[in-house]
Write a structure and sequence with these properties.
The complex is a heterodimer. Chain A is an alpha/beta fold. Helices cover 38% and strands 26% of the residues of chain A. Chain A contains 9 helices and 10 strands. In chain A, the strands form 2 sheets. In chain A, strands 6-7-8-3-9-10 form a 6-stranded mixed sheet, sandwiched between helices. A 4-stranded antiparallel sheet of chain A has the order 2-1-4-5, covered by helices on one side. The longest helix of chain A has 16 residues. Chain B is mainly α. Chain B folds into 2 domains: 95 residues, no CATH class; 229 residues, Orthogonal Bundle (MetI-like fold). Chain B is built from 17 helices and 1 strand. Chain B is extended and about 85 Å long. The chains are: A alpha/beta, B mainly alpha. The interface between A and B is medium-sized, with 29 and 22 residues.
Amino acid sequence: MNKIIELKNVNKWFDKFQALKEVNLEVNQQEKIVICGPSGSGKSTLIRCINRLEEHQEGEIIVDGKEISENTKDIEKIRAEVGMVFQQFNLFPHLSILDNCTLAPIWVKKMPKKQAEELAMNNLKRVQIADQAKKFPGQLSGGQQQRSALARALCMEPKIMLFDEPTSALDPEMIKEVLDSMVDLAKAGMTMIVVTHEMGFAKEVADNMIFMDEGRIVEKAKTKDFFDNPKSDRTKLFLSQIL
Amino acid sequence: MKNIFIRPNKENLTSFVTIGSFLVFISFIDVLANTFLNLNFTSFLPSKLSYFAPLILGTIGLYLIRIEFSGNKLLDRINTNFNSSNLNAILSLIVIFTLIKYIPPILNWFFFDANFAGNTKEDCTGSGACWVFVKVWFNRFVYGMYPDSEQWRINSAFILLFALVGASFFVPAKLKKYFLIFLIFVYPIIGLKLISGGEFGLKYVETGAWGGLSLTFIVSAFALILCFPVGMFLALGRRSSLPAIRYTSIGFIELWRGVPLITVLFMSAVMFPMFLPDGTYVDKLIRVLIAITLFEAAYMAEVIRGGLQALPKGQYEAAKSLGMGYWRMHFLIILPQALKLVIPGIANTFLALVKDTPLIFVVGLLELAGMVNLAKTNPKWLGMAMEGYVFAGLVFWVICYAMSRYSQNLEKKLSTER
């Protein structure tokens, strides 16, 4: 198996507050990892460091063979290979769903418009909202918006997908439709790192589970072991509260 | 107590409405007679009471007809719209009486007592406005001191502009981009060359001779087109993470915002040439244009910065996560949204700019208001300041109102929250 993401002794501070403490993590190609933990434990910060939406101060982060640091000149190239889905969707409200999807392929990857639109329609079909392509984000439901955001990220044909609590801002009814799309994506062989509280999804999809608390990775284990016999007491406590 | 304050009620609807409307009627008759026939029915009262008599009568009358759900549609409509409370009744009456009192004299001055025919001041015999003044000076108000025989050049430059703008609405979407580029980058050069001349067999007309409304348009249009991008880059610069760029932008903006335009124009006329090496000469009009552009750009920058700050952080992060760099992120994602948000502020700045153009008189350039100023001091036309300024005011109002409407349309058109 090829390593595609590698974190070595990563430390990150927000002013005096240490958000990540000595984080070590390896992700192989096509591996699915679900990160869980209480709020403020550094889960989001961790995955946001992977595409440098946050800057880490110590340690090494290597994505697809390239180290990410302040010296990285073509950070845009790395970001183009790492798709991200946000809790708040962050669709571009001034563009139609189709334009949301074609914008980056056309301007960043220099793809011809026609080809980009074809690609966008394929991805919109994949998340089952092809019929909404001409609408604007403000006209869609939360679930549809989040699936559009997923399609938008997929249009860059990323090697890795990061999910930052993709269902936390959704009504319970809409959570399922988004998770279904994510399960499809996982089955297609995408490398995924997902921060979520949806343990059903984790059991179905994840190869490995990570539990974080206070900026540290407390436990990393195969999904089955993680749920059946967690090693640390902190994990046991967390699981007992959430399951 | 109950008998002192009569409460209008439904049982005695007819009598209340009859007495009430009679009182209102009398109050209106009093004001009308006062305005048009110069009669004062209430002259037997003390003068102050007489002055307010219609208001008092009208208020009592409206109080009496204020009956809720009377069943009469007209009465109900009057009551809900003009007469919902005593305060509203008084305010409605004051507004209506003021209109009756002051609109007719204004109309008289403008039209009925005004003079339109003739060619000299002596032809103005009426007590109203002397529009002959505007008529005789119209050519100067529009073209300034531009030689009469060459005025076709200004006309054709503006006709070409309007034709191009008009055509841009009809050309297919694919060509529109090139059309706009032509309009913004190529046309101004053609227009300026046409008006200034000196080449292609056109007689050279120095900018000192330009003036009037055409100069208003030229200065406003160039300043508008130029101050927008400058302001945009200043706004981005002020939010830049590079200290050198950030502090330069802040310094620039605060410097220009902190000085009055009139001193900036003085500086451009008097000080600026001193810094130039001997022998170089920059035209007065160009110096003024640069001064106005930089001045308004500082304001524009702050307006645009307001829009940038209103955007959620998520928009930046989403753009970055798709692999966009600084410029793509700003031009594709951030600025389109930020600019849309601040259209009212941008329109505000543009209107202020157009209305600031008369200040270029300090360097000796006379646009519309400046020409009026000049014309009213002509010995043959002394005492015509009112007509001239009203005319200039109306023209400015029309220009600004058109811009304001356009910005409102643009807001509606760009709205995606349908």
